[in-house]
Amino acid sequence: MKRDIFLKAVHKGLIVSCQALKGEPLYGSHIMARMAIAAESGGAKAIRCNSVSDLKAIKKAVNLPLIGLIKRQYKGYDPYITPTIQEVDQLVDAGADVIAVDSTNRKHPHDLTAVEFIDQIKTKYDIPILADISVLQEGIAAEQAGADYVSTTMSGYTPYSPNIQEPDFELMQALPKVLRIPVFAEGRIFAPKQAKRCLDNGAYAVIIGAAITRPEVITRRFVENMK
Description:
Elements: H1 3-10, E1 14-18, H2 29-42, E2 46-50, H3 52-61, E3 66-69, H4 85-94, E4 98-102, H5 114-124, E5 129-132, H6 136-145, E6 149-151, H7 169-178, E7 183-186, H8 192-200, E8 205-208, H9 210-213, H10 215-225
Parallel strand pairs: 1-2, 1-8, 2-3, 3-4, 4-5, 5-6, 6-7, 7-8
């Protein structure tokens, strides 16, 4: 899918993250495909998904752009969202329209920086890269490295980013002021009003996962707030 077609499809829209890890109640590619169908029926403009098997199943089930990633942990390294070119190869072969990668200030396997890793991908493939970042400087570095879009996915998940319970509205507001590439809002967005605020702050699109596709998380929030 061409970049302009993808951007037109998701502008000011909702991207639903359909993911379930092994051991979670909804784990299984067939279940994630059904979840993606439900998201498409509700008006989602794209799907963010994890693993080759999920991506292939979802690709057959919906007519939406797919942001692919592979969560894989390498010993001695913190990044786990598409951490090496091996995962990128697999996602390209599976037909991802966009590839999400960890673009934080933490070394990737083979001691690559995020900037070096993005350059490695861009040298090998002409495919859009969504850089998952946690602070402003990472967004700037990702754009300079050649990333096509950035997402606030990792805010709160690195030791140097804000430890907050709500979306990082400050980061969402700051990024569009200094970047030329689109900024996607993601992370701890649990209410429609929060999603709307993300767009008002300058986000190009909003990515939501747990608040839509993780019933155990949704249930737990109700239980805790009813105490």
